[in-house]
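Work Package 3 (structural annotation) set out to generate three-dimensional models for the target panel prioritized at the project kickoff. During this period the team completed the workflow that converts sequence records into discrete structure tokens, so that structures can be stored uniformly alongside our sequence database. As a representative example, we reproduce one entry of 108 residues exactly as it appears in the project archive.
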Amino acid sequence: MKIITLHTDTDINQLYLLLHEKLNPLFHKQRQSELNFTIERKGESVEISLPSVYEGVLFSIAINGHELWITRNEHYVDDVNSLTVESILNDLFSNIAGDLGTDLVQEG
């Protein structure tokens, strides 16, 4: 699990809307690919998947206070599409935090 501190308030609805709006267009631009990820709100988390290519959820993101708890599918950590999504997520989270920046609390 990767834990990132945002230093700002956000909620699961804002996170879902941000990812729903931005993830696929940014992915298309970076990878020059027409793959479209599924972004779903599941209870108190947001899940990112691509059922046509990958089995299971690629990323699950939950909010705990000012922290984002990000779980990656261990089977695809070295996959280029998964790495691209992770890079996009890092940029989006940095944008949410603004001038306060983000801190990587834990990765493992």
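The longest strand covers residues 57-64.
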